[in-house]
Amino acid sequence: MFFRLLDEAKTPGVPVTITVDGLPKVVMMSAEEYEGWLETLEIMSDPDLVAAIREGMEDIKKGRTISYSQLRKELSRKQRKR
Q1: Which DSSP string corresponds to 31-77?
Q2: % of residues, the chain, pLDDT over 70
């Protein structure tokens, strides 16, 4: 039974909740998903990074974007000026 639960929990997005007397006590998830949660917590604990992400999302909403080829041209231009 335990190994069947492990097999089920190893799939990302399929957590397994273990209950005792009908109350959730433990959640098992894939190592990949766990690593993702840790990375998310690390990002969310950095106020500057969260602010930069929000700013980037706002830029996208308002259309303040450039194409990859435009970015390469601008970076190339800046590199030549050095």
Answers
A1: HHHHHHHHHHHHHHT-HHHHHHHHHHHHHHHTT----HHHHHHHHHH
A2: 100
